[in-house]
Structures are given as C-alpha cells and as structure tokens.
Amino acid sequence: MERKPTRKEKAAETKRKIFETAVRLIKESGYNNVTISEICKAAGVAKGSFYVHYNSKEDIVRDSYYTDMSEYIHRNYTAFLDAHSNVSYNERIIYFMNLELEFAEYAGYEITCLAYTLNLGTCIPGPSEHLTKREFTKNLYDAIQKNSDKNISKLSSNEIFHYFESVIRGIMATWCFSNNSFSIVEQGKKYVPLAVYSIYTK
Asked: The domain at 57-196 falls in which architecture?
C-alpha cells in the first residue's frame, strides 16, 4: 500500500510549488509585473495557502536565501553524498560551495539581486539574523573542521568558513553588479577550486 504524505509533507510540497512558480513567473515577467493572485493561479493553490507560508511577495524573495536555499542544498548535497560516499572533504566543500551558486542561477538574477537588497537592509537596524538563519552552512563548516589535516594555511576553521562564504558572496555580488553578464555556475567551477586549494592540499 502506498504511503500517504503527512500534513507536514503536504505543506512543504505546497510551499515548494508556490516558490518554484513564483521563481518561474518572475524570471518570465519581472518581479514588479507578477501578482500574488497570478502566482497562486499558476501554482494551482488557494490564495489562503499562499499566506500560510508567506506574508507577501517580498517574503518569497527574503526567504529564498534562507529556507528555500536550505532545502535546495540539503536535497542535492544529500543526494551527492549518497552517490559518492567515499568522496574527499575537498570535493565535498567544492560541491557544496558550487551548490550555492547553482541555487542563485535557479532562483534567477532578479531574485538574487532583490534578496541581497532586502536582507542587507535588515542588517542596518540590527541585530542581523543572517548567519543564524542560514542553517544549511553547518554542513560546510562540518566539512571544513573534518578536513583540518589538509589545512596548509594558518587560518582557523572559523576563518576558513568566512573566507569560503566571502568567495561565494563575492561571485554572487559581481554577477548582480555585472547585470548577469556571465554564467555564475561556470564561473564557480573555475573560482571555487582555486579558493579551496589555496587552503588545502589535494
């Protein structure tokens, strides 16, 4: 007998459907040209369901780099480790970092730029919850700590984590400032290994 999805699983699926539909419509028509009603209609969900998960269209953008990015990375990183159980920590770190850039491409240039603007705006009054809300980066920090025997730098695990996160944020920011003039994923494939192997031996 086929197992019925739980209420929690149904809610997660509805939220994913709303987010993916919003991303698609925003990519097609632009953020300012898409309404909540259009998102709900295209996703096949009631407007009330939208407000269970998001308070506004702005919330989709703000949440995209926390909850939605976390789910995207968790799903893909777990699948990667399941398929490559003996992969080195160097490769785990490189794959994880590139997943962050893949999410940016998936979410799209406009949402990524807007997410930067909205989430940076919350840092001004402070205190910022940015780092604590990005729980998925615990996987990156864990891989960094377990790779300490290959560390050829004088940096601590915490400093390496900030360095790697700065590399990713820098690539994303340059992508935004350059008006999507290059492939963020292809750029990541070149730059991320350079950053990782500046810290670790192969």
From this structure: Orthogonal Bundle (1.10)
